[in-house]
Specification:
The chain has 426 residues and is an alpha/beta fold. The protein has 2 domains: 314 residues, BirA Bifunctional Protein, domain 2, CATH 3.30.930.10; 88 residues, Rossmann fold, CATH 3.40.50. It has 16 helices and 15 strands. Helix 13 links the parallel strand 11 and strand 12.
């Protein structure tokens, strides 16, 4: 086909890109497991009744990919987890689980924003407040540290915001609309948020107070002291104490990133009830959002399960990959060596050599085409494989191999056991 149709908002990965991504996901999974999180698997699609339940993803239902069977593609992992816990009520609590996979959102594609994307998600269901909050912030942070990204975690608590809005005279039933508007601050700026608040019927003097509140500067202690002086009692002041405790616990993890209280952070989903967080990458290219999450204490009971507290955080793998410039990775294959047969009749011995090395933990590629040594070497070099293992009549008779370093060209005839030891040592 001269012009092959290809969907917007998705992408193919080249072998070097897919390998880089797989290695990054492997590191993330290893860290999840290091912290004792359990692996589960849920379908990539859910019933629209689940996805569109009141109090689930809220106004973002317009971004769902729907089918004509009353099903929708997974929007994130949180709703699926809530449904899962509701259906499996004998799970040990707290239930600590991780999930890595793709989700889909029908939004307008743009830089660092895709319609199909990979998330690495970690959640704790049934855990104690600040301790669980700190754990699900710390684990993704450690992943970012181990892959070499500098980051800042923005943290807020929606109960604090609700109580502050109440102190400004905004009733609780209108606070969601205000928070949705403020959540768009980064996209549309202060003027855009002000316009939305005016359209929502908020008084101009109240809008000024809201904008001053979300723009508070200073240390975390300064910001919390400011709201504490206003919220002398009630849920908001309790939330301040919980947020302080979460920050204290996070300090115990020895994280390298910055933890910053930011009252403008809302997170768009209606299911968030308390703490919310967002991770920003501090790079020369952009200070982009690469993850986020929060506490959703009412979501599981929404689907008929127990009324369980829950908190989670997710990393956006595709954005992280782009920030790491993964397309420039030069590693194209897992193979450490490529086995070359000089003649067709040497292939059986070449296969024996390859399978011996594979059985001993060495990733091996082997020639399966009809081509001469020169073409085989060119192929190995095109994949940037480090070593060639050449076998011909002489090598087969002596039960040896010729090991050639494809970087410096050095070549040595070795018994197979020595070749194995050399490859393991590289």
């Amino acid at each position: 086909m001269a012009n092959i149709p290809f969907p917007r908002g998705v992408r193919d990965l080249m072998p070097n890109e897919a390998l880089f991504r797989n290695e990054l996901l492997g590191k993330a999974e290893a860290i999840f497991q290091r912290f004792g999180f359990l692996a589960i698997d849920t379908p990539t699609f859910e019933s629209l009744k689940i996805l569109k339940a009141k109090g689930a993803i809220g106004e973002d239902v317009k971004l769902l990919y729907e089918t004509n069977e009353d099903l929708g593609l997974r929007y994130d992992f949180t709703v699926s987890l809530a449904r899962y816990v509701s259906m499996h009520q004998d799970l040990p609590l707290p239930f600590r689980r991780y999930a890595i996979g793709k989700s889909w959102r029908r939004e307008e594609p743009q830089r660092l924003r895709y319609r199909e994307f990979t998330q690495a998600d970690v959640d704790i269901v049934g855990g104690r407040g600040p301790a669980a909050d700190a754990e699900v912030i710390a684990v993704p942070s450690i992943i970012l540290e181990e892959i070499g990204l500098d980051y800042t975690v923005l943290i807020n608590n929606r109960k604090i915001v609700e109580q502050m809005l109440s102190s400004f005279g905004i009733p609780k039933d209108r606070s969601i609309a205000v928070m949705r508007a403020v959540d768009k601050l980064e996209k549309i700026g202060e003027d855009g948020v002000t316009k939305l608040l005016v359209e929502a019927g908020i008084d101009k003097d109240v809008i000024r107070r809201i904008m001053d509140f979300i723009a508070l500067k200073g240390s975390n202690d300064d910001k919390l002291a400011y709201v504490s002086a206003i919220l002398k009692e009630g849920d908001g002041n309790t939330a301040i104490g919980e947020l302080k405790q979460t920050l204290q616990l996070l300090a115990a993890y020895g994280l390298k990133g910055t933890m910053m209280v930011d009252f403008s952070l809302m997170r768009g989903f209606d299911y968030y009830t308390d703490i919310v967080m967002e991770v920003k990458a501090n790079t020369k290219k952009t200070r982009s959002s690469i993850g986020g999450g929060g506490r959703y204490d009412k979501l599981i009971s929404l689907y008929g399960g127990k009324d369980l507290p829950a908190v989670g955080m997710s990393l956006g793998i595709d954005r992280i990959l782009d920030l790491l410039d993964f397309s420039s990775s030069t590693k194209y294959t897992y193979a450490k060596a490529f086995v070359i047969n000089v003649k067709d009749k040497n292939y059986a011995y070449a296969l024996k050599v390859a399978n011996f090395l594979r059985a001993n933990g060495i990733s091996i590629d082997i020639n399966v085409a009809t081509r001469n040594i020169s073409n085989q070497l060119s192929y190995a070099n095109s994949l940037k494989i480090g070593y060639a293992i050449i076998v011909g009549d002489e090598e087969e008779r002596s039960n040896k191999v010729k090991l050639r370093n494809l970087v410096d060209g050095q070549e040595t005839m070795l018994p197979l056991s020595e070749a194995l030891a050399k490859l393991k040592g590289t």
